[in-house]
Design a protein that fits this description.
CATH class of the largest domain: Mainly Beta
Number of strands: 6
Largest sheet: 5 strands, mixed, barrel
Strand order of the largest sheet: 1-3-4-5-6
CATH topology of the largest domain: Archaeosine Trna-guanine Transglycosylase, Chain: A, domain 4
CATH architecture of the largest domain: Roll
Structural class: alpha+beta
Strand content: 15-25%
Helix content: 40-55%
Distance between the termini: 37 Å
Number of helices: 5
Radius of gyration: 20 Å
Shape: globular
Length: 222
């Protein structure tokens, strides 16, 4: 099927709520088309200084379809919209025959979400999620809330993917993995890596502060 595309410098996951401010004329046209036809549009990663164009589909381009939940139209034509991530898709052909980018895509299904392996990995990473939130709270000197974690391995995998404060390339790798066990297994490593990094940064700052008698001015990632 053909899907209108909204390239952004972020990775969008199924189940994710994302507010967007629409100001460019081409994307106003895209949103109005989706509102009129009750169709989804696709959000796909476009890195800084990158412009997606025909030929790029030779790479494995995976995105997530967005459903428009609400629209606030402003007097000057701009819009504030709230979207919700639905299904993943894979791009097969990019088209530039409209003012906005479109693509011929196919559904990229989420595999093995109810398997025993998925359940085992979901249980394994639960304590690591708590450890990560605690380490991040200490590093940022902010008490970060940790709500009840979902029991469903698919929901848990995508929640962790949204919550991890990692580079877009790492998030895109997670989105592109075929099955939930693959995603959870990768997240198991990423949680371990990020906790180790956060703990090292905190220890380093504390040592420097002890030596200098004051804060280092080091800024932790948001």
């Amino acid at each position: 099927m053909e899907l209108p595309l909204f390239p952004l410098n972020l990775v969008f996951f199924p189940g994710q709520a994302l507010p967007l401010h629409i100001f460019e004329p081409r994307y106003r046209e895209l949103i109005r088309y989706c509102m009129k036809t009750d169709k989804l549009f696709g959000i796909i990663l476009q890195r800084e200084d990158e412009v997606l164009e025909p030929g790029d589909e030779q790479r494995k381009l995976i995105g997530t379809a967005a459903h428009i939940r609400s629209v606030e139209e402003l007097r000057d034509g701009r819009m504030n919209i709230m979207t919700l991530g639905t299904k993943r898709f894979q791009v097969h052909k990019l088209n530039t025959d409209k003012s906005y980018l479109t693509a011929e895509v196919s559904h990229y299904p989420v595999l093995n979400g109810q398997t025993k392996r998925a359940e085992e990995l979901a249980q394994r990473i639960r304590p690591k999620i708590v450890e990560y939130v605690d380490a991040l709270s200490i590093a940022t000197k902010t008490k970060l809330p940790l709500n009840r974690l979902p029991n469903n391995p698919t929901s848990l995998a995508f929640l962790v993917a949204m919550a991890l404060r990692i580079e877009n390339d790492d998030k895109q790798d997670l989105l592109s993995l075929p099955g939930i066990p693959d995603i959870l297994n990768k997240e198991n490593y990423l949680l371990w890596r990020e906790v180790a990094l956060l703990q090292h940064m905190v220890e380093t700052q504390e040592k420097v502060e002890a030596m200098t008698g004051g804060p280092t001015g080091y800024i932790f990632p948001n």
